[in-house]
């Protein structure tokens, strides 16, 4: 079945949001977007264009002041419990081991943790290359490892949707590239619908099925680009002509927006 004929999983229809109705200026406006189940969509755009606002609306943490957000045809009207969110900083609890940190949301949600949960935690930690660190404390881990723990913690709840808000921006370039490939491996094994915000155009092209390019505030959709680069992708993908073409197309939108007006 082609993507176009699939039913949308996340749908935004003429979505807009105004944080300050008295002032009346919109943060985002007229957003139309359909995301398919298990699709990986990256969002890029200038600072302050409303990327995080978009993500918060999908999570139900923010209700749009115009238009409608729905997930599987049901309008989002309150915070959803089927989304996993990964932020720029993993905010691990310093007094718990890595394993207890990733199990914490399950314990909080259901009041107990089963043997199956513990096995799954170990399996995901192994996929993230953290097996040997499951009984270590967070401050014994590097920044990249802590961020992997944050991703495992979000995945352990087995959310339908994974929302990632600049998850790798605090990491150095090499760690960032590696953790991107780790994320792709985990996503391939455990498919999820991913909305991934990044300031890195090459990261967006390397990871995503489609890249949403937003305009300056009030943010709206400038382009939605199919990343037709075959998977699995690797470090050498960056050297392909198609990669260069796609990143150039996005750069043009960001740095020469008037050319598309
Ligand atoms: N709670 C809030 N109250 C008022 N204005 C807000 C609030 N949150 C965000 N804004 C404004 O809405 C606009 C969009 O913010 P948002 O954080 O969604 O942008 P962003 O694209 O994620 O930015 P960045 O790339 O810098 O993280 C910005 O102009 C911001 O100042």
TrEMBL record:
Keywords: ATP-binding, Nucleotide-binding, Transport. SMART domains: AAA. Gene3D superfamilies: P-loop containing nucleotide triphosphate hydrolases. It holds the Pfam family ABC_tran. The keyword Cell membrane does not apply. Residues 10-241 form the ABC transporter domain. One of its GO terms (molecular function) is ATP binding. Belongs to the ABC transporter superfamily. This is ABC transporter ATP-binding protein.
């Amino acid at each position: 079945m082609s993507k176009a004929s699939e039913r949308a999983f996340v749908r935004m229809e003429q979505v807009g949001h105004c944080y300050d109705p008295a002032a009346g200026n919109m943060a985002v406006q007229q957003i139309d977007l359909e995301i398919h189940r298990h699709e990986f969509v990256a969002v890029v755009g200038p600072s302050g264009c409303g990327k995080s606002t978009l993500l918060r609306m999908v999570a139900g943490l923010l209700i749009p002041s115009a238009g409608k957000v729905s997930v599987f045809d049901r309008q989002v009207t309150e915070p959803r419990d089927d989304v996993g969110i990964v932020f720029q900083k993993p905010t691990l609890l310093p007094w718990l081991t890595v394993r207890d940190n990733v199990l914490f949301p399950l314990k909080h949600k259901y009041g107990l943790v089963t043997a199956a949960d513990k096995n799954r935690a170990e399996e995901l930690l192994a996929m993230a290359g953290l097996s040997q660190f499951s009984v270590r404390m967070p401050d014994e881990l590097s920044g990249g490892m802590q961020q992997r723990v944050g991703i495992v913690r979000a995945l352990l709840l087995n959310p339908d949707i994974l929302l990632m808000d600049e998850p790798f921006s605090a990491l150095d370039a090499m760690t960032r590239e590696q953790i991107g490939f780790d994320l792709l491996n985990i996503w391939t094994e455990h498919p999820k619908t991913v909305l991934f915000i990044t300031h890195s155009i090459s990261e967006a092209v390397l990871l995503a099925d489609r890249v949403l390019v937003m305009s300056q505030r009030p943010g709206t959709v400038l382009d939605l680009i199919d990343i037709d680069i075959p998977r699995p992708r690797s470090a050498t993908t960056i050297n392909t002509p198609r990669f260069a073409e796609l990143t150039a197309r996005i750069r043009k939108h960001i740095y020469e927006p008037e050319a598309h007006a």
